[in-house]
Amino acid sequence: MRMILPPLFNASARRLLPNRWDFVAFPLILCVIVLGSTGFHQTMAPLSTLKTQVISLDPASLPEYALRTILRMLAAMFASLVFTLVYGTLAAKSRRAEKVLVPILDILQSVPVLGYISFTVTFFIALFPGRVLGAEFAAIFAIFTSQAWNMTFSFYQSMRTVPRDLIEVSRGFQLTGWQRFWKLEVPFSMPGLIWNMMMSMSGGWFFVVASEAITVGNNTVTLPGIGSYLAQAIAERNLGAVGWVILTMTLVILAYDQFLFRPLVAWADKFRMEDTSSQNEPESWLLDLIRRTRLIQKMFQPLGTLLRTLARMPLKLPLPASGKPATPAMGRLADVLWAVLVILGTCSLAWRVVSYVAAGVSWHDVWQVLTLAFVTLLRVLLLIALASLVWVPLGVLIGLRPRLAEKIQPLAQFLAAFPANLLFPVFVIGIVHFHANPDIWLSPLIVLGTQWYILFNVIAGASAFPNDFREAAANFRIRGWQWWRKVMLPGIFPYYVTGAITASGGAWNASIVSEMVQWGDIKLKAHGLGAYIAETTAAGDFPRIILGIATMSLFVVLFNRLLWRPMYAYAENHLR
Amino acid sequence: MENIANSTILDARDVCCGFEKAQGELKVLDGVNLTLKEGEIVGLLGRSGSGKSTLLRIIAGLIPATDGEVNYCGRPVDGPVEGVAMVFQTFALFPWLTVLENVEAGLEALGVPAQARRERALKAIDLIGLDGFESAYPRELSGGMRQRVGFARALVVNPTLMLMDEPFSALDVLTAETLRTDLLDLWNEGGLPIKSILIVTHNIEEAVFMCDRILLLSSNPGRVISEVTVPFAHPRNRLDPAFRQFVDDIYAKMTRRPQADAQRKVGLELKSWLPQVSTNLIAGLIETVAAAPYNGRADMPEIAQQLHMEVDDLFPVAELLQHLGFAEMSEGDITLTYYGRQYSDFGTQERKQLFADCLLRGVPLASHIKQVLNERPKQRAPRDRFKQELEDYLSDEAAEETLDSVINWGRYGEIFSYDDQAEMFGLEDEA
Q1: Which CATH superfamily does the domain covering A360-576 fall into?
Q2: Going edge to edge, which strands form the sheet with B380-382?
Q3: Which of A415, B65, B163, B417 has the greatest number of C-beta atoms within 10 Å?
């Protein structure tokens, strides 16, 4: 994997956020999800139990399972891309839609991905009763929810920052909205979009593993794939099979990188806005190969021609006109009406859900969930702090040695992509063997996969640290603690924050699968909100699932607002 | 170039442009009239804030005028017009398209078939001297080559009118001159399909070098203050005394205006936009004018040339000196006042003191801030307070710029302190 500097995505998008709309967006989303899924749950109950497929632990069947997993990932990525283009465009082009869509997106990316599964599995299975298709959709949707939001944010932000002169050129050419979309806006947002696709994909492996084998109440979904192979291996306590699955996953991730992302990144390099050629242009042997062979080019030519013709069609996009209203007063009135409409809709939704939840949940439950949420919060904070203590100094030391960084960086990116849940069994065996306290020793699992984001962002920051500063520091004999405090840490801080945001987001998600783990019939459980959600999901206790997920979403949103966003703003304004 | 054909290509009448502010409309352009005839190159000369780029975009149909009308070839302009091509200061090339694709892009939008597209694009590339670079991406090219692509892209659609928005100002001196002469050669040989060129610039010499007619625009709001016809035949010689005299005259015209204005209203107002001029530039200009060979009085074109500054850079500094009472401008000359001479003689601390006095006297915003701070019990006031006050009159961007300028000067003169993290003005530096 190539080292790509993490653009501080969402920076200006975050500043654009109208914060008070979040109060609307938050209940709106949760309630829509809940009502949509439980509605089906109730109307179509009793559900026919899905026939579970038997997963064979024979390593020979792993290639087939791996293929199924890969296809699932691809399908989700395609869905995310379509969603991104539509949603991002709508948010960027319509002022009124933007007011609602952007906060919604912001909340959507705070809802724990594994939380969606609990709902959507029942929803999709109800949609296709008794067929595997429903379960497939549920898994794909789960992966989609882990991929789509940051891609959409990136696209929306790019749409909003297309340089004015380029817009003027395309208007001068009299391009229609459709033509401009493909000629200007999509190409312009390509680098950010592809970078976010890579990030999404790397996060997605974790969820594909988690979503292939899941039990919600009396629905047990087992889709042939790497994840269910692992679940089966855990159920049978087969350590050898766990080894095989780790090996397969490694190969799959490497293949994805070589065959999909490296060519994509190398190809997308031409869409950069910078005026100068990059010093080390991304390269891909596959892209070179395709560019050099005439046969493959010929094969793709009809497709290319078709796409180009499509992009050139003088269609007008059916978007709400962003033109000025007849009078300012009229415009303001319409704004107010729109706001009232949105708020009313949200309130009625919220009321229905609250009354549904209230039927199955007591105040005692609420109190219990809040306590558990604080335990998980403490766990996330402590572990992120611990991971930072380890990886920041190491990352700096690595980043300042370019040749070492070149070797370590791909490894860090690989580790970030590697689904840490594959390694959980190893930990469980250890904890059982030493009779360790699960409340303490299960904790590292929540940052097992996401700590690498801190490492590779810090490495990137240290590599980009201007040499002049280092020389100046050396010249003035700034050393030791002063060097860290005054020179290096401020220099890498913006990068660190980017990494830590990703890491903490991942940690919240991971808590759902890592606070309660199994090895055969041994069950280890730590106290925390994650375990609570996992338990209620397995029991199919919908009111409590909703309570758990809503609380976790609330915590993540507050955590982001109160901790990361101020840090991010500070880094943006003062340390760049 | 002598051309008998006199048919009007573009006609703009009473064009106004402005936007709504709390205290009425803020005008960028105020009643501008402009006519373009076949066969002429017309220059729009003005400083930043004169709305010259806005006028260009109104003519191109990219933004609507709030008042007045623009007719192109007898038809009113109400959107981007076919037959009008634009060249940008920033080149505005699509970085993901090659030179050839960039040039073809405009034709493609017109629906020209692929074969004809390729032929016409190659011809334009050939004409503008880009052959050999067809498959290069913009980032592989130097600035001069990129602007050639900009020209080729504009020319390939066979426009009647070419609009140029400071096309040479992002280039180095030598490259800019080469491009100018190349363009003029093509124009004079009749090798271009275009019938007329409108060029926006803040470089007086460039305007005199290229244009047949020059419109001088005032700033805030933009009005046409004068129109001059350049009598020289192409190719023009910059060193010709008549050429130099002509440039001097335009400088005089551009500096006379504030002087005439001074009769009516003296100096700056509280709501005036303040240019971002560093205190080092202020000191530098005073010192240069004070020193030999000028000894306190200098010819503006001469000093501009010596300091490698263009109108946009030099005028704001000179004008600020005038507002602060350090210098007087008249007829294209800048003369140091008593204070100006004193300033150049003083040491650092005395300079600061003198600057502070002049700032409080000459810039109402500075004294206003000081007064507000004095009145407050804690002697602190947030930036927002003044920003909102300014935004009643100025655009948001201009208000920010003005505040940044006054903060910079106030800090230098030590009349108030400013904490950027808290966005707070204060009287005493707490540090």
Answers
A1: MetI-like (1.10.3720.10)
A2: B380-382, B424-426, B417-419
A3: B163
Helix and strand numbers (H, E) in chain A are: 27, 4
Cβ-contact B10, B71 below 8 angstroms: yes
Q: Where are the beta strands (DSSP E) in B123-211?
A: 161-165, 196-201
Contact indicator for A121, A138 with CB cutoff of 8 Å: yes
- Whether A103 contacts A25, CB under 8 Å: yes
Q: Could you write out the three-class secondary structure of B50-118?
A: CCHHHHHHHHCCCCCCCEEEEEECCEECCCCCCCEEEECCCCCCCCCCCHHHHHHHHHHHHCCCHHHHH
C-alpha closest to that of A381 among A488, A528, A485: A528
What is the percent of chain B with per-residue pLDDT over 70, rounded to a whole number? 94
Disruptive mutation site among A170, A275, A305 for chain B (greatest number of B CBs within 10 Å): A275
User: Which region holds residue A520: left if phi is over 0, alpha if psi is between -120 and 50, else beta?
Assistant: left
Q: Which of A167, A168, A332 is the best mutation test for B, with the most CBs of B within 10 A? A: A168
Asked if B359 contacts B409 with a C-beta cutoff of 8 angstroms, the reply is yes
Give CA–CA dist B202/A559, Å, rounded: 51
Which residue matches tokens 């109730």? Answer: A42
DSSP H or E run through B401: helix B396-413
- Select A15-271+283-320's CATH number: 3.40.640.10, 2.40.50.1020, 3.90.650.10, 1.10.3720.10: 1.10.3720.10
What CA–CA distance (Å, rounded) separates B256 from A122? 80
- Whether the per-residue pLDDT at A46 is higher than 70: the answer is no
Task: Tell me which chain B residues have a C-beta less than 8 angstroms from the C-beta of A328.
Answer: 20
**pLDDT tens-digit readout, B238-260:** 889 999 899 988 988 887 655 44
Q: A107 with A557: CB under 8 angstroms?
A: yes
Nearest to A275 among B57, B82, B139 (CB): B139
- List, in sequence order, every residue forming a beta bridge with B382; answer none if it has no partner: B424
Q: Write out pLDDT tens, residues A63-85.
A: 888 888 888 888 999 999 999 99
Quick one: B8-255 is in which CATH superfamily?
A: P-loop containing nucleotide triphosphate hydrolases (3.40.50.300)
Class of domain B279-426: mainly alpha
Q: Which residues contact B327 (CB under 8 A, 6 or more apart)?
A: B286, B289, B318, B321, B334, B335, B336, B337, B340
pLDDT 10s digits, A206-264: 888 888 877 777 767 778 888 888 888 888 888 888 889 889 989 988 888 888 888 88
**Residue numbers in A near B111 (CB within 8 A):** 314
ipTM strictly over 0.85? no
List, in sequence order, the alpha helices (H) in B211-327. 241-264, 279-290, 300-307, 311-324
Percent of chain B with pLDDT over 90: 42
CA–CA distance, B63 with B65 (Å, rounded to integer)? 7
Residues of chain B with C-beta less than 8 angstroms from the C-beta of A166: 92, 94
Pairing between strand B196-201 and B41-45? Answer: parallel
Domain ranges of chain A: 15-271+283-320, 360-576
